[in-house]
Structures are given as C-alpha cells and as structure tokens.
UniProtKB/TrEMBL annotation, chain B:
Cofactors named for this entry: Mg(2+)
Name under which the protein is recorded: YdjC family protein
The entry's keywords: Carbohydrate metabolism, Hydrolase, Magnesium, Metal-binding
GO molecular function, one term: deacetylase activity
The keyword Nuclease belongs to this UniProt entry's keyword annotation: no
Lineage of source species: Bacteria, Candidatus Woeseibacteriota
GO biological process, one term: carbohydrate metabolic process
Source organism of the structure: Candidatus Woesebacteria bacterium RIFCSPLOWO2_01_FULL_39_21
Length: 259, 267
C-alpha cells in the first residue's frame, strides 16, 4: 500500500435512498460493510422502509440520517417528482411545509428510536426557504448536521447561494463542499472527476460525496429513474484502488457527526 | 413569438463619464437600451436623475449597499469607520461583510434610496435592481422583496455572481413579486469570468437567450472613460466598448430582429 500523507481533510461518503427498495437496501449494506461508505440516509414512507429499519436494528448500524421527502411513496402510491415539489412549494405556506417535515422527523424517531445523525432532503429541496427556515431551527436545536442545499429543482445541479449562506450563518454543521456525479455510464471517467474535485479541497476542509449504491432489479427499474447507475455506484464504493487514491489525497473518511 | 428582452444600461449616475456615455447611447440612431438603472448615492446621481425626469424612458432604482456612502444615517452595520459602505471584493467575489449587515439597517437604507429616487426623478422606479446583485443574499433580498411587494414593482432575478440561485429565485416567486427570469451580461472582459462580447459572441448570446424560458435581461455598460472613472472604478475602459457596438448595424439588427425589446415597467 502507498504511504498516506498528512490526513487533514474530512470526507463523508453518503449512500442515499436507503429504504427505497430491497435490492437497494442490500446494495447499500454491502457498500457500508465492504466499501467505504461512511453513512446512509433513510427514506421513510417508502416501499422498503421497514426492510431497511430491520437491517439497521439487526446489524446495529449507528450513523443513520434522514432522507427527507415531505411526501412519500406511501402517501401517493408513487414517487414524488421534481415537478410535484415545485407545485408543493407553490401551494403550501411555511406552516404547512413545516408540519410535513415535523411529522416525518417524528416518524423517523419512532422507527429508529433516536434522532437522525444528519438531514439530507430529497433533491436538495431544503434549498427552498419555506423548508430551510424550519430545518435550520430544528438542526440547530439538536445539533444535527445537514447536507449543503444544492437544489436540483432549478436548472442544473443547483447553484444556491441564498440557501447556502443562510445555512452557514445559522451555525448548523455542514461540509464545505458537496460532490456528486449522478448520471452517466463511464465509471472510470466519474472516478477521475471525483479525484480532480477532491484534489482541490484544502487541508482542514471537509467535503461530502453523494452516492446511490444499490443492486438493480425490476422493482428498482420501475420505481426510479436512477437504476443501473446504482450498481455503478456500488462498484465504485467497492473499488479499493479508488478508495486508496482518496486516502492518498490526505482524507479521513468520517461520518457527519465528526465534521 | 419572439422572446422578450430588456436591455438595461447599468450604473446610470455613477460618474459623469458614464452619464454622458448613456445619454449618447440613447440619442444614437441605433439605440437598443430600454431601461436605465439609476444609482442614488454616487457622484453623478443628481445629474442622472435630472435627465431621467426629462425623459419617458423606464428608469429603475439601482440599489447599492457596497459602494460609496449610504444616504441614510444610523446604519452602523453597513458602514466602516470612514462612514463608507463596507468593502467587498469582486475579484474573488468575497461578500462576507454582508454577514455583519442587519436587516433593519438594510431596510432603512433601501427606503432612503427609494425616497431619493421619487423625490429627484419625480416618479416611482420601474423596478428595484441592484448594483452587484447583492440581493442574491437573503439579508438584502428579504427587505427588497417586501419593498417591491408594498410598492407593486418588479425586481431582477436574484442571481448570485450572475449565476442561478434557486433559494432566492423561488422565494421571490412564492412571495408573488414579479421578476425577470434570466440575466445576461453584455461584457466579456470583466474579471474574465462572465458575460458575452457583444460583437464576437453575438450569435452565441442570441442562441443562449433563446434557450431560456421567460423574460431575459441583457445588462450593458455604456460609458465614456475619463481620469475619474479610470481611477475610481475597476470596470473602466470596458465601458467604452458598448458605444462602438452601437455603430455595428449587423449586431443591432440581429438583436432587434430576434427579440421583442421591452422594459421593466412592461412586466
């Protein structure tokens, strides 16, 4: 093994969508145990939430965050889409959005027996101030870290300075950077891009890499537009050479609670 | 149907040279400017207001919280020891001084700039705009949105660093304040980062505006260049370029042929 240099940077590697489907749950479990995923976020009110909760309890997994949906599969019998969120924020006021978030956070505590170790809203919807406003108060009160509010409801993988500066001013813990390559079939290119991005992070700074590892079956294909990409991300999370390259850039792999 | 485009002359009132450049542009046979963005607290503000009073062109308030001195008193969180606004660094886009602003002071200064405008121009601003788009930051955005709501005027899309800023943009929409949807800078040699050269990149600019939904705004920077401007503004010689663009019939026709030119008061 190559010598690891001064590890002064922190990297959280999060697997999203735990609870969405059984094959995804199994893939994430493997990515945590055999790969370098440090943390995962649980989707409530989803087809395999209970299956995920059983795994968490059976395997005594500790770092479990919430993948906040506001409206889950169980509520409307399908996945809530980006355009649905745009409508939701248009039609509901601050109090109504807050109520949805509170119910979901309470449900998390009921199922897991404690508060989440991080808050990661679906599609970065906490970039909308109607949700962010409430979440900042909640996260501050219980000292729960939150993902950077890059929101994908706008045009691209969202520049969102307004939400980011509010999050930083609130004192709620977050990483300095968030990197993600959600789409695409060229794993080697994606790994290279991650390494280029991670190399630009300076000593003492922190970053998060978001991933969607999972196995891929008919259920996954029907449920979500991200399907084979999950198997691709699982392969990446199990790639020891890739992990070694990251460590050689001077990173500690940590959970959100350690940032 | 042609896409709607507002062409705004930025920084009206900043310095005498800029005022003269903008007035020259308006009188040019190829004029394409539909909106003037008037600064309330700068050396050429009064002259620019006088001109604005004498024309019917749409004139908006170019709010400013980071250059020169505030118009209001008792806004300690906005100023340094010298009484000037706290300095930002547009080279690195470091606006961290806004961390120290409090919203009450922002509101007070915003009201002062608005009142200065109505008093000196003799009518309401057509919109509330911003010098460096500081209102991409919620601390400034929230007072600006409540003012716009109260006065029933639109604002510019609250981008940050001239880029997408979802949280601020959705906030404006949710609050029911009208705004443009996109902004383009008609200037390339500005810190080398943003914008289009209106001659070399004109086809690309037109194509890019056409891909966007909603109303776009093209910000232009007309100005003559004298010693004062050269010494006091980091954006100086570049302002001369627009005056040359006006003589380029091909560029002007392309803009006029491709877009319906409107102003903020048409929103």
């Amino acid at each position: 093994m190559m010598k690891v240099k001064r590890a002064t940077k922190k990297l959280v590697i999060v697997a999203d969508d735990f609870g969405l489907a059984k094959e995804i749950n199994e893939g994430i479990l493997r990515a945590c145990r055999e790969g370098f995923v440090t943390e995962f976020s649980l989707m409530l009110k989803s087809p395999s939430t209970q299956h995920a909760v059983d795994i968490i309890k059976k395997c005594k997994l500790r770092d479990v965050g919430i993948h906040l949906l506001l409206v889950g599969f169980d509520d409307i019998k399908r996945m809530f889409r980006r355009s649905d969120y745009v409508e939701l924020f248009k039609n509901k006021n601050y109090q109504e959005i807050q109520k949805l978030a509170e119910l979901e956070l309470r449900l998390f505590e009921k199922l897991i027996g404690k508060k989440p170790t991080h808050i990661i809203p679906q599609y970065g919807i906490h970039g909308n101030l109607k949700l962010l406003d409430f979440l900042l108060g909640y996260a501050k009160k219980y000292d729960i870290p939150m993902r950077l509010p890059r929101t994908t409801l706008g045009e691209k993988f969202g520049e969102n300075y307004a939400a980011e500066i509010m999050l930083r001013r609130s004192g709620v813990r977050t990483t300095k950077y968030l990197f993600g390559h959600v789409l695409g079939s060229n794993l080697l290119r994606i790994e290279r891009e991650f390494i280029d991005e991670l190399a630009r992070v300076k000593g003492g700074e922190s970053a998060e890499v978001l991933t969607h590892p999972g196995y891929f079956d008919e259920e996954v294909l029907k449920l979500t537009s991200l399907n084979y990409e999950r198997a691709r991300d699982l392969a990446m999370c199990l790639d020891k050479k890739f992990e070694e390259k990251i460590l050689n850039l001077g990173y500690h792999l940590v959970s959100f609670s350690q940032i | 149907m042609k896409k709607k485009l507002i062409i705004t002359a930025h920084d009206f009132g900043y310095f005498d040279s800029i005022n003269r450049g903008i007035i020259y542009s308006l009188k040019h046979k190829n004029n394409i400017i539909t909106e003037l963005s008037l600064l309330a607290n700068t050396p050429g503000s009064l002259e620019a207001a006088k001109f604005s009073r004498s024309t019917k062109i749409s004139v908006s308030l170019n709010t400013n919280f980071t250059s020169q001195k505030p118009l209001s008193r008792g806004v300690p969180s906005l100023v340094g020891k010298d009484g000037n606004f706290l300095k930002v660094d547009t080279k690195t886009w470091d606006f961290s001084v806004i961390d120290r602003f409090n919203e009450k002071d922002v509101t007070r200064e915003l009201d002062a700039q608005w009142d200065w405008f109505t008093e000196n121009v003799g009518r309401k601003p057509s919109a509330i705009l911003s010098k460096k788009n500081e209102y991409g930051d919620p601390k400034i955005l929230m007072p600006v949105v409540s003012k716009a709501k109260k006065e029933g005027v639109p604002i510019r899309v609250p981008v940050w660093m001239w880029k997408e800023n979802y949280g601020a943009q959705s906030y404006v929409e949710q609050e029911g304040v009208k705004s443009t949807q996109n902004i383009f800078l008609g200037l390339k040699e500005w810190k080398g980062k943003f914008g289009y050269d209106l001659i070399e990149d004109i086809d690309q600019l037109i194509a890019d505006i056409k891909t966007k939904e909603g109303v776009s705004e093209l910000l232009v920077f007309p100005g003559f260049v004298d010693k004062e401007l050269m010494d006091k503004s980091t954006l100086n010689w570049q302002r001369g370029q627009f005056l040359q663009v006006l003589d380029n019939n091909e560029v002007i026709s392309k803009i006029k042929d491709n877009f319906e030119l409107i102003s903020f008061r048409d929103l």
